[in-house]
Amino acid sequence: MNFNLNFTSFIRSTSINSFDLDTPTGQNGDEQEDSDDDEPLQSGMGEISKHCTDEQLASWSELVANWPVSATTRPKQLSMLVKNGIPDTVRGEIWLRLSGVQHQDPAMETYRKLITQVCPSEDIILRDITRTFPANDYFRESGGTGQECLYRISKAYAVYDSEVGYCQGISFIAAALLLQMPEEQAFSLLVKIMFHYQFRHLYQDGFENLRLKLYQLDRLVQDQIPELWDHFQELGIESHMYANQWFLTLYTAKFPLIFVFRVLDSFLLDGVKVLFQVALALLSAARKDLLMLDFEGILKYFRISLPKKYRNAENTGQVVRSAHSTKVKKLKKYVAEYELKEQERNQVDPLERVQKENKSLIENMLRLEFMITNLVLGKMKSDESLASVEEEYTKVKLTQKEVEEFNQKLKEETNSVKELFQREVKQYDAEAEKKSNIIAEYKRICTKLSSQLEDAQKASRDRNLFFQSNLCESCSTFVTTALQIAGNKKQMNGESPGTLSPVSSGGIGSPEHHSPSRDETLLKPLENELAKTKIALAEAECRNDDLSHQLSIALSELEVCRSSHGLSGPSRIWKNLTFGSTGKESKRSSVEESGSGGSGSNSGQLLTSSLSLQNFSKK
Fold first, then answer.
1. Rounded to an integer, what distance in angstroms lies between the CA atom of residue 402 and that of residue 392?
2. Beta carbons within 10 angstroms of residue 281's beta carbon
3. Higher pLDDT, 576 or 86
4. d(CA 320, CA 166)
5. Cα(174)–Cα(183) distance, rounded to whole angstroms?
6. Which end of the chain offers a freer environment for a tag, N or C, measured as fewer CB atoms within 10 Å?
7. pLDDT digits over 134-180, tens only?
8. Beta bridge partners of residue 18, listed in sequence order
């Protein structure tokens, strides 16, 4: 037996045409728990914490120690502990004791025999295995251990209970049990749930018992949550639209594992009434949300939003505690009402019954046509949005391609500019080093000339002093004349006259004896050399400043190219990278003019230049 059946075969309501578990398979189970999209949770979603406090461990250890396996009565504190949640470390053992499964249960030996027998539903089982708990690692791998165990249990139960056979809802319950115990014990516990807890009645007689359970749920909602019942009646929401899967799978197909295990804890403790208690607790908790939604919104809420609310222990604990406090004492009364309604329905004239069913079918068809129209309009809008998004995506893709090409070109240009700058910097460094050497040589020459000048002046002073002290006036005149003649001869031969000291014609020992013409003759070559050196120094400084200025401009241009996407190519980069010589030539001409003016100055200017030369040499 499979769930892909015509719903009219087991429920006589005319508002539903088919029934399917609608379990999302997905390609993997890695969906994040905090996902808020429109995709439903995959079955088997969530992780269970193995953490157990010392107090909990002590309480459960004491309970197990005082609870013999063969005991027919349960401990008094068991109910309170189960309602607070069974720790996952001992959950499998407690489940076996709650259901009365012995460690050497006869069903375990029967299971070993059943898995060797042929099952007529093997193909259907294999098809559904991949859709059972696909989000759980244990069952995710195709052909893995989890899927093999689940296949054997589903096959064994289909052979064991031939009246019910295989149903996909049973495989979800078996998968939850396999996560807590070995497959032999899981099969034994599944048999207990189906027979001892009478869960198999939901699958018998064309799902007649399921129809009864849904009627009981309707009456409970009508009595305990009347405003929600009125809202559902106004919109045409029926219980089988949301509760079929809850009941047939024991809440294992849609909800996270943390919720599934807590429901199984309560079900094994209190039995079938937990189905109604949990349903009422869920509806009560979602009452405000449901009252604000329309028909499609409510169905989507039950399918997607509601299971996602119970992905954490806090919300799950609240709804489970609310379920245990919910009273469902009128279930037997609702059974009598249901049977009476069934009798009355069977006594109605067949023609009249068919007419009513046809009327209901027409109403449902109109509602479905309205829904289909809305869906088609929604699909058209979605298609338009999708086309717009695709067009925008294409544009973005083209823009991205252009940007990538531009970035590549910009990168190449940047590399070229970097190489150019590196070459220029090396050239500038070489020229700067060369100018530094010239300046150093100039300083050395200036120092040497200054030293020679000081030595010549000192020698001249010494000779004058010697002549004043040791020669008479006539001898002094004679020596002066001889020195002048010797100086003139050396000057005519190109030798430096700096070694001769001028002696004044007015007499030895007086300042008037110094000859201005001889001073000019001695200082003029030095002044000329000094002027040329100054010119070279000024030229070097001008070129150095010009190159430094151009380098800073080029670096600024490069930074602008890096930060801006508005450039059209390398032309903008090179626009200002021209190294002209106009500034340098103007500076050089001005320096040369100043130099030529200095060389043609009078004797006072020569004295000033000589003092400047001495100060520069000292620096």
1. 15
2. 19
3. 86
4. 30
5. 9
6. C
7. 999 999 998 899 999 999 999 999 999 999 999 999 999 999 999 99
8. 6
